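Researcher: Before we compare anything, I want clean individual predictions. No alignment, no superposition, just each chain on its own. First chain goes here; please echo the sequence and then give the structure tokens.
Model: Echoing the first chain and its structure:
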Amino acid sequence: QYTTHEPDFPALAKLAEQISQEVTS
């Protein structure tokens, strides 16, 4: 499980957003 205090959370969120945009296209 990823939590908001994880150091890599911003990167994971950004990656997830990019993936979601690709899937939506």
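Researcher: Okay. Second chain, same rules.
Model: Second chain and its structure:
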Amino acid sequence: STNRTTFLLIGDLAFLHDSNSLINVVARNIDLRIILVDNCGGGIFSFLPQATSMDSSKFEKVFGTPHNSDLMLLAEAHGLKTTLVTTLEQLLEAMTIEGPQVIQISTDRGENVRVHERINQMVSVAIRNS
């Protein structure tokens, strides 16, 4: 332990796969602030060409893999504090609370892709105009 606050940004599927690592986090008083991005599945795969080139139900089954799990309940089962945030202000406030906790941010996979596309377009324009 470094006796320092540690922040972890993790997606929902990775959180589920690695949830056994939460054992004893509270007992060891590890000041771990887990920021959990929950898009109910493998949102990163929505950036792959398969997201638009294959049947959406097949894509969801193979890549999206929605889990429908209560991630806050899972964290609470390990004794962690939990907070669901919907605004930047709530996120910043939750990040100041001391002690091990999970801060959940729910996102929409489709909207995430659209936002990234707009950012990429703006960057491309800025590069061309520089």
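Researcher: What stands out in the second chain?
Model: DSSP finds six helices and four strands in the chain. Additionally, The domain at 6-128 is CATH 3.40.50.970 (Rossmann fold).
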